[in-house]
Each structure stands twice: as C-alpha cells, then as structure tokens.
Amino acid sequence: MPELPEVETLKQVIEPQIQGLKIINAIIKRPEVTAYPTADIFRKRITGQTFMGMSRRGKFLSMHLDSGDQIVLHLRMTGRLLLAPHDYPKEKHTHIIFQLNNGKELRFSDMRRFGRFWLLQQGETDTYTGISKLGFEPFDPEFSAAYLKTKLEKRKKAIKTCLLDQNIVAGIGNIYADEILFAAGIHPARPANSLNAKEWESLATAIPKRLSYFIEKNKITPEEYLETRGQEYRNTPFLQVYGHADNPCLICAAKLCRTVIGGRSSVYCPVCQKQ
DNA sequence: CTCACCCTGTTA
DNA sequence: TAACAGGGTGAG
C-alpha cells in the first residue's frame, strides 16, 4: 500500500494519538511478522513501555519508546496500522495488537503478510532493518540534481529502476516513480546514463515536489482514517498517469502507454516522455 | 539483468 | 482461471 507520502500520512495521523500512552500488552498472533528479535522477546521487551513519538525514514516508520528502544515497521505492500477502541471490530489479517492504557489498541494488519517489525534496543547498532543503507530523503537539503547525477550517471539501468532503488533516494515506490517521471518529462525506460544536465535538474525538482504534493493530498483526520480502516488514504484521483493506461495525457491528449520495466508495471506518455 | 518468491485478494 | 497488485530480497 504505502510509499513515502502514505507512510508520512500514517505518522501524522497516528503520532499525536499515541504519544504518552503505555503499552500494557502486545498480542502477536503471527510471530513471523517480527523479523527481529523473536516474537516472545519483542513482546516482553516492549510491554510496559510508553510511546514517545514516531518518525519516518523512507518507507520505514519508527515508534520511539521511553527507554530509547524503537519499534521499526515496514508496511511493504498491504500492511496497515490502525488505532481503534479495544471493542472496535478487528480487521481480517490482524497480526499484532498493542493494547494501550487508554482502552485503545494499535493494530497491525496485513493481508499478504509481507510487512515486518523490528525492535531496535536502546544503544544497539541497526544492522538488520536496512535503514542504515538508505539513500537521502527527498527533502534532505543535500538531495540535489548533482547528487542524482553523481550516483547514477554511469548506470545503464532504466531511470525508473534507479528511482525505485531505496539506496539512492528513500521512499519512492512504483506509483510515484511514474508520477515523478511524467512530471519531469522523462521516459521511464531511459538508461540513467543518457540523461542530460537539464533532465537531472527536472528530476531533482520533480521528486520532492510531487511527493510533497501527495502528502498534502493524502491528509486525513483520525476519524476519517478510522472509518476507512486505514485503507483509502491514498488520494488516487490526483494521480496523473499511474492506473490511467490508454487514457489521454493531461498535457497533450496522446494515449498513455503501459509497459513493464524491471518487472514493474509502468505508465507514461509517449509524446511528453520521449524514449 | 531477469526471475521466483514471500502471501491473499481482486479483477479481467 | 490466470494475471496482477503499492515492496524487497535472494538466486541464477
């Protein structure tokens, strides 16, 4: 489900609601969703701890606890996090329930079970979540056309594949890669080493611009979020190319094309994004 | 690089 | 019934 804007939305909705609440128990129904440590150690260690805040890095979400421990979560394709009253109907595929001291529960559900939790203990070096290998945040002041160019100008891979590489820029997924490349006027299959200076600039501008636009469009109140069960907080009506294959391009009215790049479905305008 | 895989549900 | 789905990893 989530790319950077959705994880950011999730953080903005959930963080103010759990701050200062204590975990009185954790029910881990599917032990495999805790990648590290084991479900039993995970549960014992966090029980009794208090949520201090949340932070996002790329598509990872970290929940900071009072001891300095961090619960790290990656939602992958279909993971969801929902704060609900304890008697609120449970989603199908609910795998972890954090029971809180105000009668509410923070619940993780995930139909495809790809999502993963880690517990980083206070003072421990993170060698397992992958966060330490991530590239710049798109909103990092050091992120720039020069950075992209330096990292990618020798690569022959399709530029879209490079945008999906979390170790270059963190947080871009399949939908927003297409939206970004459309905004930048760059064909998704262009080899990275074929981009010119102007195109690196367009890309470096489009990345934070498009992502912040979608963060804005995704804004949702806690009430709406609960009502839709955390499912529909991506504002698909604002997507310009993804999911619009065969429709007319918003700029030139040419028919949008669909293709597969790096095994991922890709939509682009054959006129605005020349090969 | 491509492909299979981890899973289940939805759509064609 | 099969293809496809917003992610990431590991094998070949």
Describe the secondary-structure layout.
Layout (H helix, E strand, L loop, with lengths): L3 H15 L4 E6 L5 E3 L2 H8 L4 E7 L2 E6 L4 E5 L4 E7 L8 E7 L3 E7 L5 E5 L24 H8 L6 H6 L9 H11 L12 H21 L4 H6 L29 E5 L2 E5 L7
Parallel strand pairs: 2-9
Antiparallel strand pairs: 1-7, 3-4, 4-5, 5-9, 6-8, 7-8, 10-11
The protein binds a DNA duplex (12 and 12 nucleotides) through α5.
Structure characterization notes:
- The protein is built from seven helices and eleven strands.
- The protein is an alpha+beta fold.
- Strands 2-9-5-4-3 form a five-stranded mixed β-sheet, with helices on one face.
- α1 runs parallel beside α6 (197-217).
- The longest helix has 21 residues, at 197-217.
- The radius of gyration is 20 Å and the shape is globular.
- The chain starts with a helix and ends in a 7-residue tail after the last strand.
- The mean pLDDT is 95.
- The protein binds a DNA duplex (12 and 12 nucleotides) through α5.
